[in-house]
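Continuing from the previous page...

OK, I double-checked the sequence for Low molecular weight phosphotyrosine protein phosphatase against my notes and this is the correct one:
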Amino acid sequence: LVSVGNICRSPIAEAVFRKLVSDEKLEHKWRTDSAAVSDWNVGRFPDSRALSCLRNHGIETAHKARQITKEDFQTFDHILCMDESNLRDLNRKSNQVKDCKAKIELLGTYDPQKQLIIEDPYYGNEKDFETVYEQCLRCCKAFLEKY
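Thanks. Re-ran it with the corrected sequence; updated structure tokens here:
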């Protein structure tokens, strides 16, 4: 799960998906991680508002931001991102990777409410983080049901 800085949307999506996988007892089937297209926040914990939002839903995460690697494109079956800018960056990066096996697409593609883009809540407020959580929950549930 990929976003620009890996401190808001993608760690929320990662934590939500990991909890869904755990609740369904499918840990043996899934390897879940998140990353950034940029290197701005490498090594940082998620935004405090993201952590607070997740805690409000009974979800903890120990994730630290990292940048996507060539190996990610060769290892993961799916790379899901948050917006068109992420999608463009990932497609460009994947074209430079030999043996890219990952299917790259917007996480919002799976939203039953058809909200394709998961907007960055960084400059918003707690309500914006809650919106991201709700979108990620809907999308991750639908993705997990499909696969």
